[in-house]
Design goal:
293 residues, transmembrane helix, rod-shaped, membrane, mainly alpha, 8 helices, single chain, transmembrane, Secreted protein
Length: 293
């Protein structure tokens, strides 16, 4: 056998293994490619699921904050309405005062409910403090209205020139009765007991109030509420409502910080959400006043 024959035999003997090896390698490469494709698909699916979960959590957080914004605005509106009612109650006829006051007081209690479910502890503490003071306002409002309406009526009955030297009996009686009311809580019990009859006489002689109104004033006079000075206030200051304002401000600040992602409400109550997936109009529970988001 010459060299050519040897080479031919060797080549023939190696052809089959090489062919087999090439086929095996091609099959192995195909499987790896298929496995890589499957793994890539699985990773993409996992990524899509994770992204969907993040988006869902984001949407849920936005909706929760929107609900909290609406609940905060509703509570603030109810509280402000009660404060306005307390402020305006002296100008309301006595027979209607209790009804108006009770309706607004109940509205504050009702509006706190959603906040108890949605609000964080800090915001809830400020809401409960404001609600507690609203109860105080409601408890003092009727006596405050009686005293303030009486003081205004007596001031209107003063002498238009000089109340201290006026010789008109009605004008003088109005001025003396006014002085009694302004100084009443500072008097000793014995002084109040002695001067009570004179106060009643001056109220009647002033011709500034009806008999039922005078009876209402005397009922408050006999009880001498501890908050007398705060209810009367002064020419400019109104201590009761100043305290309400002082408690209102931190509630608004806490409400704003609790809802940083909520877009402002439009005039129709809808919100301009940042994505179409969250573009659902959320009704604003209160329009004026409201918690700016």
């Amino acid at each position: 056998m010459d060299l050519v024959d040897v080479v031919a035999v060797a080549t023939a003997s190696l052809t089959l293994p090489i062919t087999f090896l090439a086929a095996w390698w091609a099959r192995r490469s195909g499987r790896q490619s298929a496995d890589a494709t499957v793994v890539s698909g699985v990773n993409q699916a996992h990524g899509s699921v994770a992204a969907a979960r993040v988006q869902t959590r984001g949407e849920l957080e936005l909706r929760q904050q929107a609900a909290l914004a609406d609940a905060s605005a509703a509570f603030l509106q109810a509280s402000d309405a009660l404060a306005r009612t307390v402020e305006q109650l002296p100008d309301v006829v006595p027979e209607e005062r209790s009804v108006q006051l009770a309706a607004h007081g109940m509205a504050v209690e009702t509006a706190l409910g959603p906040l108890e479910l949605l609000a964080q502890p800090k915001l809830l503490r400020h809401a409960e403090a404001l609600r507690k003071y609203c109860r105080t306002l409601e408890g003092l409002a009727l006596d405050r209205a009686v005293l303030r309406s009486a003081v205004r009526a007596l001031e209107a009955g003063w002498c238009p020139l000089n109340a201290e030297i006026c010789d008109n009996d009605h004008h003088s009686a109005a001025f003396v009765a006014w002085q009694f009311l302004m100084e009443w809580p500072d008097r000793e019990d014995e002084e109040r007991w002695t001067d009570r009859g004179l106060l009643e006489y001056c109220l009647q002689e002033s011709h500034c109030m009806t008999e039922s109104e005078i009876a209402g004033v005397l009922a408050v006079v006999d009880r001498v509420p501890a908050a007398w000075s705060r209810m009367l206030g002064g020419l400019v200051r109104d201590p009761l409502l100043e305290r309400f304002t002082a408690l209102r401000a931190p509630f608004i600040e806490a409400a704003r910080s609790a809802q940083p992602l909520v877009p402002p409400a439009e005039s129709d109550g809808s919100r301009a959400w940042p994505s179409a997936a969250v573009g659902v109009a959320t009704p604003m529970a209160a329009s004026e006043p409201s918690v700016p988001a």
